[in-house]
């Protein structure tokens, strides 16, 4: 691989004796990873079911390496949200933040959602995770991944950090800043990052990271924990960003991250002031473990800090929409959604717990998108299907993952079923894929058009 000469010279100077081991990784294949979804399947069942050869990622209990010749993104289990394809080192970040069910969590730079899906799974769909992405198109991709994973406690927003602060000052127990960065650690994965690299960009990213961190600080509760991560090697965007953050706030404590499985400490000689405590941060190097480059820091806000002064969202659903939904619930579901219901025009959402007022925010998804009220009938949303279990519905249609019928469904075709039962949850080997409506022996396909990737 042809690397920028200025990058090579810089890394040689920084790494000295270690440099040749580091550069030799560019002649090796990158590792491929996927993470199973504990919201839908347990580890043992997953390993028995999945048709690929897998080996565990040592620093992530839900993570596995798979061979380069497999294509897990094309398997129906991917469409059913049984796993997320993710670079292995990236899986370490959420393990460091480790939120608990019921907490309030912000993923400030969240798209496409690798870390959001991992954090939300740890929260077992309890509490609130705000997944924010500044770019509208990337925010939509984030929202789709959250849907596929069956996550019901996420508020997906499309805001700048400064706008979010106005709504969430002192609100969160935990915050992840997986910062935009120069991406040096992804050169083996992303050839564009190599082409566009420059030292001037490194410095610009460092400025941006400092401003994002300052806004994140304001949104953290007293006693709250923030994790900062990048996928780059440059000290300016890592040790020096954290050093500057600690210098500008006197109530921050840098917490120690365990250095096991080849994970290395941050380098004090790469700070501006020789800051010894920077060794509590973690560096993942491609020549020290099986994965790409990452940096992770964990910081506690000790306070005192002002507490959140906002208000919570209130139900706002017109009676007619609620009536249509309740009829659907009675006819189709075997469970009741006991959540605050919220409507955006004719679309009905079940809000996460502790959901703050949504007024004035650009909302892409507000918890679980239940469905849409359409001229006297309720049409369930794809997100509802992916959040259910077969026993939650009256009728389901199970398709085998290697059957022609399963691929027909994923292509958006109708299926002949011979019965007349109305809404059916279509599943693959018992895991929900989407909705179908059965009328006079034919199943009309409600698999979303934008997801019909097998056509
Ligand atoms: C490293 S990526 C996030 C990856 C994501 N956390 C994941 O695990 O899938 C950084 C994200 O920050 C977003 N971003 C760029 N500028 C930003 C800004 N000024 N404030 C917040 N986010 C920003 C980018 O659009 C990008 O999606």
Automatic annotation (TrEMBL):
Binding positions (S-adenosyl-L-methionine): 109-115, 133, 178
The highest taxon in the source lineage is Bacteria
Q: MF terms per GO, please?
A: RNA binding; RNA methyltransferase activity; S-adenosylmethionine-dependent methyltransferase activity
Answer yes or no on keyword Methyltransferase: yes
* Cited InterPro entries: Methyltr_RsmF_N, MeTrfase_RsmB-F_NOP2_cat, MeTrfase_RsmB-F_NOP2_dom, Nol1_Nop2_Fmu_2, Nop2p, RCMT, RsmB/NOL1/NOP2-like_CS, RsmF_methylt_CI
Keywords for the protein's UniProt record, in alphabetical order: Cytoplasm, Methyltransferase, RNA-binding, S-adenosyl-L-methionine, Transferase
Q: Where is the active site?
A: 231
What positions does the domain SAM-dependent MTase RsmB/NOP-type occupy? Answer: 1-302
In terms of Gene3D superfamilies, this protein maps to: 2.30.130.60, Sun protein, domain 3 (3.30.70.1170), Vaccinia Virus protein VP39 (3.40.50.150)
What does the sequence similarity comment in the record state about its family? Belongs to the class I-like SAM-binding methyltransferase superfamily. RsmB/NOP family.
- In Swiss-Prot or TrEMBL terms, this protein is called NOL1/NOP2/sun family putative RNA methylase
Specify the species.
Parageobacillus thermantarcticus
């Amino acid at each position: 691989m042809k690397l920028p000469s200025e990058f090579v010279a810089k890394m040689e100077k920084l790494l000295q004796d270690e440099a040749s081991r580091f550069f030799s990784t560019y002649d090796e294949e990158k590792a491929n990873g996927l993470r199973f979804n504990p919201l839908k399947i347990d580890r043992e069942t997953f390993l028995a079911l999945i048709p690929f050869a897998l080996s565990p990622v040592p620093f992530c209990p839900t993570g596995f390496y798979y061979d380069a010749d497999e294509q897990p993104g094309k398997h129906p289990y991917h469409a059913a949200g049984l796993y997320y394809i993710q670079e292995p080192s990236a899986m370490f970040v959420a393990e460091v933040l480790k939120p608990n069910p019921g907490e309030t969590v912000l993923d400030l730079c969240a798209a496409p959602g690798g870390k959001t899906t991992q954090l939300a799974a740890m929260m077992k769909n309890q509490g609130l995770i705000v997944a924010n992405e500044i770019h509208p198109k990337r925010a939509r991709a984030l929202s789709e991944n959250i849907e596929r994973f069956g996550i019901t406690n996420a508020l997906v927003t499309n805001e700048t950090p400064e706008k979010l602060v106005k709504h969430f000052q002192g609100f969160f127990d935990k915050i992840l800043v997986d910062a935009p960065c120069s991406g040096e650690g992804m050169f083996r994965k992303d050839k564009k990052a190599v082409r566009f690299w420059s030292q001037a960009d490194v410095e610009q990213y460092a400025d941006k990271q400092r401003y994002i961190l300052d806004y994140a600080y304001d949104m953290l509760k007293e006693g709250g924990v923030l994790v900062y991560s990048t996928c780059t090697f440059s000290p300016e965007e890592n040790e020096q960003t954290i050093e500057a953050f600690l210098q500008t706030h006197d109530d921050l404590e840098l917490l120690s991250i365990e250095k096991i499985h080849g994970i290395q400490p941050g380098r004090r000689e790469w700070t501006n002031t020789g800051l010894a405590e920077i060794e509590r941060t973690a560096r993942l190097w491609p020549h020290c473990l099986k994965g790409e480059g990452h940096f992770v820091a964990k910081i506690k806000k000790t306070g005192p800090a002002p507490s959140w002064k906002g208000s919570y969202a209130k139900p706002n659903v017109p009676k007619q929409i609620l009536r249509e939904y309740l009829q659907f619930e009675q006819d189709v579901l075997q469970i009741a959604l006991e959540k605050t219901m919220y409507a955006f025009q004719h679309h009905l959402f079940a809000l996460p717990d502790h959901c703050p007022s949504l007024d004035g925010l650009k909302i892409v998804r507000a918890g679980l998108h239940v469905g849409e009220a359409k001229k006297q009938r309720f049409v369930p949303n794809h997100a509802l299907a992916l959040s259910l279990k077969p026993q939650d519905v009256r009728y389901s249609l199970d398709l085998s993952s290697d059957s022609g019928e399963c691929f027909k469904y994923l292509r958006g075709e109708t299926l002949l079923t011979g019965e007349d039962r109305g809404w059916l949850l279509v599943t693959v080997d018992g895991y929900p894929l989407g909705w179908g409506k059965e009328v006079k022996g034919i199943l009309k396909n409600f698999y979303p058009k934008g997801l019909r990737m097998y056509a």
